[in-house]
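Re-running the complex after MR caught last week's input typo. The corrected sequence lines follow. Everything else is unchanged.
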Amino acid sequence: MKFGFFDDNEKEYVITTPKTPLPWINYLGCDNFFSLYSNTCGGYTFYKDAKLLRLTRYRYNNIPTDTGGKYFYINDNGTIWNPGWQPTKTELDSYECRHGLGYSRITSSKNKLKACVTAFVPLEDNCEINQVLLTNDSTDTKTFSLFSYVEFCLWNAVDDMTNFQRNLSIGEVEVDGSEIYHKTEYRERRNHYAIFAANQKADGFDTSRDAFLGAYNATDDPAVVNSKCSANSIASGWSPIGSHHFNITLKPGESKSLIFVLGYIENKEEDKWESLNIINKKPAKAMLSRYSSDEQVTVALNNLKDHWNQLLSKYVVSCKDDKLCRMVNIWNQYQCIVTFNMSRSASYYESGTGRGMGFRDSCQDLLGFVHLIPDRARERIIDIASTQFEDGSAYHQYQPLTKKGNLDIGSGFNDDPLWLIACVSAYIRETGDLSILGETVPFDNDESKTASLLEHLRRSFDYTLTHLGPHKLPLIGRADWNDCLNLNCFSKEPGESFQTTGPSEGPIAESVFIAGMFVKYGKEYATICHELNDFEEEVRALAAVESMNKAVLESGWDGQWFLRAYDANSNKVGSHECTEGKIFIEPQGFCVLAGIGVEEGLAKKALDSVKEHLDTKYGIMLLQPAYSKYYLNLGEISSYPPGYKENAGIFCHNNPWVSIAESVIGRGDRAFEIYQKTCPAYLEDISEIHRTEPYVYSQMIAGADAVFHGEAKNSWLTGTAAWTFVNVSQYILGIQPDYKGLVINPCVPSGFGDFTITREFRNAIYYISIKNEHNTQKGISKLIVDDKEMFSNLIPFEKGKTTYYVTAIME
Amino acid sequence: MKFGFFDDNEKEYVITTPKTPLPWINYLGCDNFFSLYSNTCGGYTFYKDAKLLRLTRYRYNNIPTDTGGKYFYINDNGTIWNPGWQPTKTELDSYECRHGLGYSRITSSKNKLKACVTAFVPLEDNCEINQVLLTNDSTDTKTFSLFSYVEFCLWNAVDDMTNFQRNLSIGEVEVDGSEIYHKTEYRERRNHYAIFAANQKADGFDTSRDAFLGAYNATDDPAVVNSKCSANSIASGWSPIGSHHFNITLKPGESKSLIFVLGYIENKEEDKWESLNIINKKPAKAMLSRYSSDEQVTVALNNLKDHWNQLLSKYVVSCKDDKLCRMVNIWNQYQCIVTFNMSRSASYYESGTGRGMGFRDSCQDLLGFVHLIPDRARERIIDIASTQFEDGSAYHQYQPLTKKGNLDIGSGFNDDPLWLIACVSAYIRETGDLSILGETVPFDNDESKTASLLEHLRRSFDYTLTHLGPHKLPLIGRADWNDCLNLNCFSKEPGESFQTTGPSEGPIAESVFIAGMFVKYGKEYATICHELNDFEEEVRALAAVESMNKAVLESGWDGQWFLRAYDANSNKVGSHECTEGKIFIEPQGFCVLAGIGVEEGLAKKALDSVKEHLDTKYGIMLLQPAYSKYYLNLGEISSYPPGYKENAGIFCHNNPWVSIAESVIGRGDRAFEIYQKTCPAYLEDISEIHRTEPYVYSQMIAGADAVFHGEAKNSWLTGTAAWTFVNVSQYILGIQPDYKGLVINPCVPSGFGDFTITREFRNAIYYISIKNEHNTQKGISKLIVDDKEMFSNLIPFEKGKTTYYVTAIME
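Corrected-run output:
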């Protein structure tokens, strides 16, 4: 069942009912000021940090779902309704929500009154604009009331929901005409306040939640809206809100627009006050003046659209599969940027109160956005590398504001170091900018201990090489990519972190997955050395890679597939000898995409085993059979009920690894089948099963062992976005950034047909046309660049050349 | 305006409308299993620790207020209502909530169907019982549906409201007939589950919140209740709930009772499972069998009532002031026990997610419950003293489960050590048990470093003595009793803790309040030494006390009142020389009750100044004039808006100090006036202003500078309970436990009349009759014990004697 449709022309997803299976959201904001915005106007707003500087309150796991947002109420002759349906849930005569790139627009009508709410965060200011356009579609004059409503958060979202003995006494506001200022704690150490203002003179206002709602009332039944009369309340403690009231009369056919701005203002210490306890409102008023007319708002919205259109013009495919096109050209790239902005902090599943940016998360996210924002990717790489330790290991997380490593979780996740090579090589391949390798980067953010970024990579490489176990495979440490495979943990106490309990270095437990990574990114490291003409280091690296390759073939192969690991007693994990968890997805994907066992025929065997044992119609499960009980020696993975999360869920992040692996061995049909299974656009028709947004990836889909097989969870903030984009853009469509230029190496399913790609690469534009007359699945036989035939599938990059016309022929 | 009345006979407060200004709650549970229970059935349940082992979910600061509880829904021919009004808020034909001691009973009716819900935690089991009695008061047969509803918390209340990417996948239940088992995480490291069961065969059940409520529905409109048909849902992830459905038919006049039990069960590791993934239910079924009949429930409830009646029989006053009698005999003592059980963890203002037991909080709470549960007071003292450091300082908080000091907050609150003397002396005065002083008690919970409790007291005493500032007054450190007076903090960053920022030891800033404490409890320490015949130490202690007394008179007197402190620059705080914060309440109360300046006439002057500058009709404010802005050198106190909390709020905890001080100088009228102003029973008639429960004290009442002057906040968990009980029982009514026996030293207002007190003391019962024919305010002139006239106001304790008949004559 569908709950909307894609409008590819407008780059929008159009939701046609407010009653989606779960709230379907969008992200507003590009830089420092962000809002989560659901299809019923739910969500919240923050500045830079979703925990520390939250402007509006949101109750996660609330009843009803997703009540809390920026609401507008209309009282039209006693019928009280919201354009976004929630919270009154008054049935609407029409409803449409368009989630676009950085903006959302909800249009609905009731009793021939139409309301259109357009919400976005402009590029240049720290505010969210809500433009409300009201139109009388009836033949009679209509007189009605419009009320706005936001509930302020007292800034620190964790403190706000726990420290009531203080918080209920500190709320403070100021009201100046239609401007409502939320200034809690501004009297003391904060130098910032929030503003919620309307661009026209209001007929009343409220700032006390109790006054607005009435005692024991929910937001579905506010006393003030009922009575059509604001209390003009000034909050003192308890819960400050912002609400405006407008009495409006519209003649038949007449429209009226109102602009509401919710903004964040910082003042310098010396400019905090206008007079005793009266805040300095000048910067707020200056901001409001930039959005006081419909014309200004239209310009700001158009600027925002231009910004996104320009960003997304860097990779554009045209082919006969609409679903693939819209994912590649719009939604997958959009989601990659959102993961850049949000990391794993604020979604409808991530409560915005955890603080860490993951080392490996950030490295992998970068694979998805490096072509869009290479400069910011460069910054991000330096930030990440700066948290590495001198021995090459890394903090597993770092704090986004201080950019320092998170001591609470520390290090010991032994895949982390290699992801640094992954993201640096992706950056260089994209940009050709080898200079980044010469950047001076501290260890552990200590400026007295620095080295070149290249040296950081060497330490990443050597960390793995010097932490091998009995089978010469890499030690797993606390965990590898699978944070829930905790082979050195042995936790018996509820509440203990599976990730930090137990020693960070176990001397026995080994990961075949990290071995695969080492082969993949060890080769990358060798290539980087080659590019720098350091052939000695290149040879050293390749020799180590070859040894690892051998170790995997000798001790990492189980007969029909790759083993997952050896536990702390050197017992096999992910072997046919195991009772449960016989086969895991990760090593099959990563070993093959690294090229291990391809020549020996093991790669094909491993991928066939994946299909036989792990495949479902909704994607490939992480392991089988699911663990039916808790295993002390395995850790968190066995703590989940079968079919969920790492315990045999379809963990979408690793599905593209297998798809890529299939393309490595040339099976385009299978690679594409895997791509489709978890790709949201292809799941739109089964939204009642999939439940999350059909325009973005989710972290997990319940596996075959689960009660609700096919149900997705944790949409938006997942490394799945980056890896699926890498898969579809580089391996399926086959446009691969390489050190010397773009490589064309597609791997498509039968019947895919011809396709074209417009690719911006190193400030040049490539118009690439790929012909596939003979229905070939893999590779090209002929490459013509600007009428000149090439001798390989590489389009050599030529400095200064701005346009490339490319034709590639699949044999 | 009143919202109910006291039923003194039943020891109940009877609430006559669900629409109280704020939820008015009760506490169920005496030992390990507790529920908060509001007058609309809101609240939550936990086992031992409100953060780590929470059975049911509760959303603080929710909209509507206080939705979340153990609800019963009745669908009577389409009219859907709840006996507690919430959450449907269907108007009731009658409503009554009786909060008793450890139980609550809500009786209401709609359309001639009566429902009576009795909720309590039995003495012997870890469960809450809800007995629902339904009566058809109409003349027709009634057929209707009853649904139960609880929402389970996934145990750790903080994780439950933040870690959704895990939690939405782990919920698990089992259903066995009418027994619903919540077993999330039992598969792995938990050895406990929750049970929610009915004593009769249900017609249906639900365990999935979404199935029960329906998508986007609130608890005011559950789909299943609407349809009168359970979905028999088995939760898998998302939000597990427990709901039963009963189809009931009642003839005119007929009644039916149902018993619901919500319980907590722990199994031993080896007894966890009945079979693979099927939990061992034996202990749950055994518990249910103890509450399967109305007779069993009645016995259990009567046992609970007996328990409380016996506890409260230890201090019973009879006088002509009903309000005073009900506070002394019932509610104040009840609240003292609740503070013993809860410390500051779980109330409607304390979210149950903070972990610390305060060192000073616990010492002071003990003053209020030591006469009720002396054995548990003894244990508590040892727990507290075990967190002391070798130098006499103390962790400011300790963890209730581990009983270890809380490193996050550390030490440096320089009043803490002296409170240990306060509580130990109170214990010895009450029990005569000097043996506690010989107990071996560790420092910092390190069994390799121990000393006698007496030595701990000496270190408390000497810590103060060796930490004096330039005026020979005690250094304040991080703060003294007033946690918000942070003279060594200088915090500029929002979010920094005022309590832990800055040095713990400032070498300059001094507290006159701690000086008062030192004089008071230094004398106590000297008396203890005297009792142990250590006259040398007694003399040393008294000399030090005398020096401190002198230092206060020399450097702590401001002309009309006692100074509050010297800041880190040795500038005065709480002086007429200050622009704001000229006079503080704490030193006036504590210096005078310690006897400082009484002879010199300064005590009277100080208390007159309190009346002149700090008094309001709702109590005495903490300081005046309120701080209008943030002072770096003063800290958190100036962070609050004027009139709230420590910034000139009426901080109820310290009002009894002034009342006691007034009694020290013999002004009974004024002492009693102060007592009355913050005493909830006297505020019942202005509940629309006071807002919190009229049967328990609140921490704070908004001061004269506040917008809502007279509005109280943070009821239940406050040291006010203990201090007001000390005041009224020992200083106003004048029954003072002393080392050698009971001292009779009343200080009452004119017109108070004769009164009698029954007091259990050291296993003897004292029947005390106090005659006041001449309307004397202070002291007695004649004391007759068992027909024998005494030569002082002491009733000497005689070992073995079990009954004392006492007559005291006020001149």
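None of the earlier attempt is carried over here. The mean pLDDT of chain A is 97. The longest helix of chain A spans residues 322-342.
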